[in-house]
Amino acid sequence: MAQAMAGQTHIGPSPLGKKPFISKWSSRYRGATVQDLEPPAALSLNPNDPVSLALLSAFERDYTHLTIVDADTRSLLGYITIPTLQAQVDSGAVRPEDPISRAMVRFQRKGRRYTVITMATPLEELEAFFEGIGDTNNQKQDFAVVTDEDRRFVLGVATKADLEEFVKRRPA
User: Residues 107, 114: contact at Cβ < 8 Å?
Assistant: First the structure.
């Protein structure tokens, strides 16, 4: 029986990969899931929406990431990060009236397997995802798109900063 002790890290099997994942904050998670982060509802835009709408919408809600979905099927196509988008506008790479499709990062669906992050995903798994352990080809991630189990609906976006804030609020 494993016990988490204050000030110690938990080493255990990771369902995300074959190597054990060492969590920095497992003693603070205590069974918490992504739902406990209380991620705000996702704001998804369409590829044809103007860049100015993305900037305004993100500013009004204090969001750093927006998901881009197909206008008809609502399938997830990609995302934009607001600081990057603002830098592109400032440099003239895109204009406020341009469609978001000119600035978005598209998900590569062929030949790639994505980690499904749901509201029920344990925070240890979310931390592993952010650290690049598992399906992410050892690439660290700054955010996760939170979906339902079937990946049909985008429910929210969880960021590494959200996880860090949760840990700060939770006593050891």
Answer: yes
